[in-house]
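Continuing from the previous page of notes. For each protein in this section, the sequence appears first, followed by its structure tokens. Read the first protein now.
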Amino acid sequence: MVIIMEHDATKPQIDDIINKLQDLGFNIHQSTGIDHTLLGVIGDVSKIDPRDMQVLPGVADAYRISAPYKLVSREFQHKNTIIDIKGVKIGGDEVAVMAGPCSIESKEQMMTIAEIVSNAGAKFLRGGAFKPRTSPYAFQGLGEQGLKIIREAADKFNMLVITEVMDKEQISLVSEHTDIIQIGARNIQNFTLIRALGSIDKPIFLKRGISSTIEEWLMSAEYILSGGNRNVMLCERGIRTFETYTRNTMDLSAIPIVHKLSHLPIIADPSHGTGLRDKVIPMARAAVAAGADGLMIEVHHDPEHAMSDGAQSLLPDQFVDLMKQIREIAKVIGRTIADARV
């Protein structure tokens, strides 16, 4: 249930309603906007008649949320969530670009790629220190050493860091070195992990599961928001279908669907969405046109010798060209992308 307070509702009126509902055993999530304060009532609200709430002093309206995900839903919050990370905003007018290699391989590699992507206009440096691989014999990442490398590279080129956490026990370590914590497709329903992320003060980047429906994906985000962490962004990275030509099937329709159902920002990852270098650029262009709030692009200066996902990594010149193209597309739909630095 959502209770919308009058724009001039007093603090005692708001506190009175919160106390009444908490006494009944409900958890209350308060969202204070410019015009109104919203109270999200979490629990079995079938025993509450919205009309009983509507007549209380200071209340403008009260209604039940029909979606199974409550805090994530557009019904709970009409305005888009904008996540501000050290002055860089995700979910606003600017389309955020995150770029870098699949895996952190060495300091030299990360310094080289960070300079390339930052000069082209990317504000977030991506790279995996802990790599979840299908084969146990594949490169598994550099761990803590990799985290230190990506942090140093990002700081040198005035970028922010996004990297993946694989296990609940890694949260503290990863949080020390990153600005956004990524949850990979394989962990979308690792509820022990995502519950823990609800209690930390760090933005969460939640990738869609390999075979997850949009509702399942939003329900995973609900776990995090219900724990108190409102800074969650979603990432469409392709899903598994019967088609085998591409690595995954990039579901571009998920972008406008998520925007309709939820207030959370949505990022597109055409690198994993296709798995093919020559398909990344057209799908990235299409994602921006579809309204994506950001892009995550894999870039490598020597993809033939990359330790993981070289086949889907753009070459530096390709990434520079892509940034030029999506700037023009963004203009058409009234959005912007950061200019190149050189």
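Done with the first. The second protein uses the same format. Note its length before scrolling.
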Amino acid sequence: MVTTELIPVESLSRRDRASLDRRYLPMAKVVPGFEWDAVAPYVIAIDRLKAERNAVIIAHNYQAPEIFHGVADLVGDSLAMAYMAAETEASVVVVAGVHFMAETAKLINPDKTVLIPDLEAGCSLAESITGADVRLLRERYPDTPVVTYVNTSAEVKAHSDITCTSSNAVEVVESLGVPRVIFLPDEYLGQYVAENTEVEIILWRGHCMVHERFTPDEIRRFRAAYDGDIQVLAHPECPPEVLAEADFVGSTSGMVKRVDVERPPRVLLVTECSMAANVSVNFPDVEFVRPCQMCPYMGTITLPKIYESLRDMKYEITVPPDMAAPARRAVERMLEVGRGKGG
């Protein structure tokens, strides 16, 4: 029988309380104790539901710390976490992320039940283009391969030749051995690729509403505030003038690797704000300055909604077979070039 009740904090067993304390310790600097106590009943209930449903929770780097560190079993970039779920024996995958990530998880885990806690968890970048748009581009530029960023819907992937991540975009483009490609949908990532390859890049004007808000003046203000004693790491979805101000440009996983290798005393991650909070847990010797641009779509995923999703087995993500097959093939073609690890 599936357990659905919430147990008040004061009624928790010593074992449950100890489990909560162990999980809270790493994030104590970014999550106030009273907030953790408020969500503790959901954390324990989610633990029980995961066991009873044979479920895993995969969480993107941009999720809130109480989800990322509190209940997630697998964490990472959008594509990486989907493949991590495939390596488990779980029959249910709950995606603490946005809708295109849940679709990607379903593509990679076709025999598992994939749930997203909130159907309103969309993405401005993914929603900037449709399959119909891709078909029109193909008509305008016949015999030109379509390279599509994984931050897109299954429908758009299905109309593409190959996908890419932000970490392997240049490699994927050059692997095709052609003089020109259509690159979708992120304009700024496409411009970054164009600067690093001789292949002609046909762009689409899609943007991430978080990354496009950053400005070069903002980066310069941070440098001035710390007398230049700060390392700036920027995601390639940012405008090119912002990337020009950075010390390093890379995917979310690339940023983490950079911090791990360089161990700068102070770092500014020019990406979604929650990532700095999550990454800082693993690098207590590094000061993370947070330029707080939050993704409102990621914020729709909460612990109560994850609890309800597992309790009621909602909302299930499906991808029609005639769309899933070509979309999966576009991802597989990328993996044949080199498995992407950054989104």
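What the second structure shows: Residues 126-206 form a domain with the Rossmann fold fold (CATH 3.40.50.10800). The longest strand covers residues 55-60. We return to this in next week's lecture.
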